[in-house]
Amino acid sequence: MPEFKKYFTLSYDDGLEQDKQTIVLMKKYGIRGTFNLNSALLGEKSNIEYTGTIGFKNVDPSIVKKGLIKTAPANRIPADEIRQVYEGFELATHGAHHLNMRKLGKEETETEILKDREALAQYTDLPVVGHAFPFGSKSPALREVLKNNGFLYARALGSTKGKGEDRFAFPENQLDFAPTCWHIDKNIKELFEEFLSITPTKGDMLFYMWGHGYEFDFDVMKKREIIKTMEWMFDRVANDDAIISCTNAEAFMGHSSANT
Question: What phi and psi, each to the nearest 5 degrees, are found at residue 156?
Answer without folding.
Answer: -95, -160
